[in-house]
Amino acid sequence: MFSLETRNDNLEKMTQNTLDVLVIGGGITGAGIVLDAVTRGLTVGLVEMRDFASGTSSRSTKLVHGGLRYLAQLDIKTVAEVGQEREIVYENAPHVTTPVKMMLPFYKGGTFGPFTTTIALDIYDRLAKVKKNERKFMLNPEESLRREPYLIEKGLSGTGVYVEYRTDDSRLTLEALKKANELGAMISNYTKVVKLLYRQETGQIIGVRVIDTVTGKEYPIYAKRVINATGPWVDQLRELDQSKEGKYLHMTKGVHVVVDQDKLPLSNAIYFDTPFNDGRMMFAIPRAGKVYIGTTDTFYEKNPAEPEIKREDVDYIIRATNAIFDIPKLKLSDVETAWAGVRPLIHEAGKSPSEISRRDEIFHSKSGLYSIAGGKLTGYRKMSETIMDKVLKDLSVNEGIPYIDCQTKELTLSGGVVGGSAAFNQLADRFIQMGQTHYNLAPAEAKEIVQRYGANAKVVFDYLLEENTTNLNDMTLAMLKYGLEHEMILDPVDFLLRRTSYLLFDIKHALEIKDDVILFMATYLNWTEEKVAVMMEELEVEINRHTVFPY
Q1: Contact predicate 434/461, CB 8 Å
Q2: Distances (CA, A) of 531 to 214, 490, 525, 528
Q3: How far apart are CA 258 and CA 284, in angstroms?
Q4: How far apart are CA 479 and CA 26, in angstroms?
Q5: At the N or C end, where does the chain have fewer CB atoms within 10 A?
């Protein structure tokens, strides 16, 4: 179980004994660290001030990719490291990571030409150690248009085709956390650090004080080592620790928009130049009957919790899309939803947002606080290994804890299966058939559940056997029950945005079910009428955040 009850028990347990390691931050980096730590035999806890992946980790381009554009910056090490990590992430969580063919069109005067594209993709394949069946191939203009007829023909010199991995970033984070919970880690969302605790004699950090934002209760949590993995908030904790010196974070904002696939009927994912001579490139990626497009890249200095989506951001993406695809021109009204996220990058003076390196950085303060920032979604496991190597060597020398090497390279996440993608694909076929024959699901419904929950789909299916006295359809209710009992859902936005992505990729369905989702959660979680009213209001704000772009 991974429920409200689990969460409350975890909070109590974390206050009773000194942990080996406490991780602050429940995004993909914190999730990777807590999983790495627990598999090395450490007693470890994690606290997240909001919901898991509610910051940057649910607002990415939703790709586990090697960063082809970093070759242009000669950032060879980043391309090699994260390129090789793609395969590991895919094999450990194939249900939330899907290989897709990516087309890179090159036009006269663009960033890439036939020669540079061939060379770049060859280097990329070698650095990333790409499997033979996924290596690049080149197409001439005629072949390119046969493969993707909606590319603009004028000036097209050809395309390179290579493989990237589309992912569900928020669910990837969640599956890592669920696996860590299964292995004994103590994890709690909606638990905010309000104070760092120090040993008076030495000034060394010994823990934190947290507030349970659900109940208002405060707890002290003590740990031998504390890791700050809070993404855009890393520097805030460093300031609290009085250790923000030297390098610091530089935030950039990225916006993506979602349109119906009827409006942009692509058969392939496309990686293309923007037409504005600003050095930017964008992705257009089909997903579940929609196409999402992005991203922008601009400096950002406001609240990282909910970066605003400006009309100019959306207009920029629309104009870039209209310049590359031979379709009836997209309009603002064609944008169904959008999302914005903040990238916490390490500041580099004089560089534009797109030029700043995506490399990660580890800071170790005089008080003993470890902080990690920067990096990419794809490299989360390797980042976690790197910082835990440092922390465990520290613990080994100073606390006598045995040093154990990283155990996560072949560790299946929750929902994955031993045997990786090949074994999962066989299991998925059986489960989809099971959903139809034993649980009376339509083929599309069974497939959606299996693709979202992987090997955990059977648990979701079993909820279909329970009586349904709500206005929700059986499938939605089954997923909601599973989320409440196995995915620590405490807020309707947790379910509608991060557990199912309905608020992004099926806004019509989200609007149809939102009130009934709240009503069921109110009964299940014993909410007062006042709490229901607050949840309804907050959900409306969230919906508007993703659908209304007034400025």
Answers
A1: yes
A2: 11, 12, 11, 5
A3: 9
A4: 22
A5: C
Q: What per-residue string of b and e applies to 251-275 under the rule 16 or more CB within 10 Å gives b?
A: bbbbbbbbbeeebbebebbbbbbbe
| Cβ(434)–Cβ(199) below 8 Å | no
CA distance 400 to 386: 20
For 174-248, list the strands marked E by DSSP: 186-188, 191-198, 205-212, 218-228
Sign of the dihedral through C-alpha 321, 322, 323, 327: positive
DSSP, collapsed to helix, strand or coil, labels residue 153 as coil
Do 551 and 310 contact (CB within 8 A), yes or no? yes
Do 71 and 123 touch, CB atoms closer than 8 A? yes
Q: Which of 499, 426, 410 lies closest to 89 in space, CA to CA? A: 410
Q: Any residues with CB less than 8 A from the CB of 311 and at least 6 apart, and which?
A: 332, 549, 550, 551
pLDDT tens readout for residues 315-365: 999 999 999 999 999 999 999 999 999 999 887 555 566 555 567 899 999
**One-letter amino acid identity for 433?**
Q
Instruction: Kindly report, residue by residue over 222-275, the tens digit of the pLDDT.
Output: 999 999 999 999 999 999 999 998 888 989 999 999 999 999 999 999 999 998
Distance of CA 370 to the CA centre of its chain: 22
Q: How many CA atoms lie within 13 A of 101 on its CB side?
A: 16
The model's pLDDT over 98-133, given as tens digits with 9 standing for 90+, comes to 999 999 999 987 777 788 888 888 888 887 778 888
Read off the tokens for 505.
């990729």
The most distant pair of C-alpha atoms in the chain lies apart, rounded to whole Å, by 74
Cα-to-chain-centroid distance, residue 537: 26
Cα–Cα distance, 18 to 40 (Å, whole number): 17
Q: Which of 545, 550, 551 is nearest to 59 (CA)?
A: 545
Phi, psi angle pair for 485, to nearest 5°? -100, -20
Whether the link from the prior residue into 295 is cis, omega within 30° of 0, is: yes
**pTM for this model (two decimals):** 0.96
> 303 to each of 97, 178, 190, 196, 444, how far by Cα in Å?
30, 29, 18, 22, 39
Tokens of residue 8, six digits: 């409350």
Q: Residue type for 426, please?
A: Q
Dihedral pair phi/psi, residue 205, rounded to 5°: -70, 135
**Rounded CA separation 14/45 (Å):** 7
3-state secondary structure of 201: coil
Q: How far apart are CA 38 and CA 34, in angstroms?
A: 6
Total number of residues shown for the chain: 551
Which helix or strand (DSSP H or E) is residue 32 part of?
A: helix 28-39
Residues 6+ apart with CB under 8 A from 87: 129, 131
Q: What are the beta bridge partners of residue 424? A: none
d(CA 54, CA 341): 10
Interacting residues of 133 by C-beta distance below 8 A, sequence separation 6+: none
